[in-house]
Amino acid sequence: MMASRRWSPLTCLGKTTLSPSGLTQLESEVGEVETFVCTNCELRYEGSGPLPKPVDDEAAANGSSNAWTAVDVSLSCHITTHRIVLVDEKEAIAGSIPYPLVQSAEGRGGPSFRSPKASYKIELITLAWGELLIVFRGGERHPYSQSGKDRDAALNAINRAMKRKAWEERQRQAEKDASRPSNTIAARKVGVDAIMTKNKLLLRENANLAETAFGGNNNAANSGGFVSKKKSNQEDIDAFMREATPLLKVIQKYTSTIERERKAAALSTNHVHKDTSKQHNDTEKLVAMLENMGMASALSEKQSGSMYHKQLARQIVDFLRHNDKLNKAGGMMTLTDVYCLFNRARGTNMISPDDLLKALNLMKVLGLGMSRRSFKSGVLVIQDDAFDDEVMAKKLANLASSSMKQKSESLGAGASFTDDVGGITVIDVSRTLKIPALLANEQLQSAEHMGWLCRDITIEGIRYFPNLFQEAASC
User: Fold this and answer.
1) pLDDT tens per residue across span 240-283
2) Are 444 and 457 contacting, i.e. CB atoms less than 8 angstroms apart?
3) Rounded to two decimals, what is the model's pTM?
4) Which residues of 436-448 are buried (b: 16+ CB within 10 A; e: fewer)?
5) Nearest alpha-carbon partner for 136 in 58, 76, 196
């Protein structure tokens, strides 16, 4: 019988889906982005009496009762553009507080004359759960000083998100798209004329969009009145945030165009060198501009602080689990392959080799189902915890045995002994299992060390054969 779900403020919040590695599943279709993360938090319910039990609670369905706990400890707090997510990583439980249900968010606590070590808190007045407190306990090295920084950063992120109201962006964008001149004017025309008119209007709208987003409110500056520098900067930021979603779509369009041009240039060989050089320079300028803008949705080390490498480890696991990348690679991949594939998927927000190594070292501690492995030769790989060397060794032994059967059949058909000498090589294993030759060599050596294979070294190279001594011993 499964253990019943606990009854606490966290389990009473809005339901939140976690990835297999424990990351919050963001609602990308509505443009949700994670802006701040911190650990070692508590969630407290300040109302009288307990909150109503969750509808999907197993204990409530069976008629039994769980003890109400008004405090959840050791949580991680994730601030996004649409909600506040609190996660218990040990039990893989998460709950969210959508911003439309938040009436106010204010900072509380901190040092005072009577309590010099009072905890830092955020008080949330919500429509669904009443008064909730998020308590920040800080990091491991400097817990109290870090807790104040975490509280201030989280509160700023919450206030910015509530002011922006990104959850209303879809409706605003639909209304804006419906009123765009490229849709209304081009609708009156037909054929090629309609296509050409719409393309011209789209180019003009994109140019106006960039000018509005990066130019801010220039009318006040041109009117001759005095506008403070601080105020104008804030207006520029607000203008950019209002136009961020459509601007990002334009940038993503240019990014995909760059990728297509690079692939076409790599495949094409019959083109004019002068035009190609000019196009290459234009492409590189656009790439440099996008990199300077940092248009990426993944969290950086500065945004997530001490949680960065833990978050990175979970992201790598989810990436390798997606479409069974690791299983298709035979249950393990070299760090070089993981580094290249993962950085390509992240785009401009790439990670360093040191970040990858630190993230891999945390996978075993976090229990993500993958871990780092080092072979005797020094080759480093990331390996699925379900991978079994014994199973792989038997698989290679069967492959070697099948090669010996093919040899005997070919000799029986009248072929010479040199036509098929039997045994398997590194290239044979690499081709059959569809793994890099480097990993194939390590797997063969591991199977030999376990006694399943034996080698034959000749001037042609190394061939591996079934270990007949072990087969005789097993009989």
Assistant:
1) 555 555 666 666 666 666 666 666 766 665 554 555 566 666 66
2) no
3) 0.62
4) bebbbbbbbbbbb
5) 76
